[in-house]
Amino acid sequence: MYIILAIVLFSVLIFVHELGHFAAAKLLGVRVNEFSLCMGPAIFQKTVGETTYSLRCIPIGGFCAMEGEDEQSGDPRAFTSKAPWRRVIILVAGAFMNLVTGFVILVILFSLSSGYLIKPVISGAYDGCTLLSAEGLQVGDQIYSVNGTRILLYGDVATLLRRGNGETYDLVVLRDGEKVRLDDFAMQPSQFVVNGVPKTMYGLKFTAVEKTFSAGLSTACYTAIDFVRMIQWSLQDILRGAVGIRDFSGPVGIVSLISDTGKESTSVADGMENIFYLGAFLAVNLAVMNMLPIPALDGGRVFCLLLTAIIEKITRKKLNPKYEGYVHATGMVLLLSFMAVVTISDVVKLIVS
């Protein structure tokens, strides 16, 4: 059940992305030749008006094929015939729809369901924790930042502590409405007993508040921002060489992760909630990654579009869009090759595990 749900969720996110391009193109007067879900040979096609709607056999990706997208076209409704601002809106619309989808899922999870939310406000400590003192942390402190990075959610505390040096941290806490600095504050995880089970942790307890719509809405906003920061940190790790090819995941790995998330949950309800939380992260991830200035991605197309507009403004000559098409075609080949390597890695990891 979880594998099927994972495939459906992944497909829905891609469908929503392409639907954003499709809707924006139609609204802004661009001719759409084909709107397809998935890739490869078509298993279903139906033409309605000027657009062919298709379902293809390889459950990866999808596309919205617009007239004149990568080549010259005499059609006045071609993509390249429209003003640059219209083309930018169309290209950004897919990522925007993914952001909206992720945010809506988060609002439902945090605002329209019962339960509690954990705030980064210290409510106490486990026996043996020495972090609370008159000179250190105190009950009621809201942890505001760690090493200069803002704490948005309770989960950020552990994340940012892990990204530190593991010994001392520059903390800022909100205490009685004022910011208090704790520079070079020593914090190291130790063994604590929680409900009879030994755990390695810092020993602090945090405040739980009942879910309300306003609290859930603010938590959904902070979580969406936090997702973007997590992607930023991951990209920084990639550029530093801190992660290798085995740390990447493609569609196979993502479906496996979603399935494992559901199966490892304590109940079906918890499993569904965890899967949709992961789905929200994937939606935001898809939006951010698609807007990177890489050829073949939406961000790469926006970058080339703006660069072309500047060049044409300076030279007062119209550039042939086929050259941009060559750039994106090359980028697509490289991207698909990388995806093939990642997919093989995902399959190997599944076999080995």
Outline the secondary-structure elements:
Layout (H helix, E strand, L loop, with lengths): L1 H26 L4 E17 L2 E16 L17 H28 L4 E10 L16 E5 L2 E2 L3 H9 L5 E8 L2 E9 L3 E5 L2 E5 L2 E7 L2 H28 L10 H13 L4 H23 L7 H18 L5 H32 L1
Antiparallel strand pairs: 1-2, 3-10, 4-5, 4-6, 6-7, 8-9
Helix pairs in contact: 1-2, 1-5, 1-6, 2-4, 2-6, 2-7, 4-6, 5-6, 5-8
Give a summary of the structure in a few sentences.
With 353 residues, this protein is an alpha+beta fold. The chain has a domain at 116-210: Pdz3 Domain (Roll). The chain contains 8 helices and 10 strands.
Structural features, described:
- This protein is of the alpha+beta class.
- It has a domain at 116-210: Pdz3 Domain (Roll), CATH 2.30.42.10.
- The chain contains 8 helices and 10 strands.
- The chain has a 4-stranded antiparallel beta sheet with strand order 5-4-6-7, with helices on one face. A two-stranded antiparallel ribbon has the order 1-2. The chain has a two-stranded antiparallel ribbon with strand order 3-10.
- α5 packs across α8.
- It is elongated.
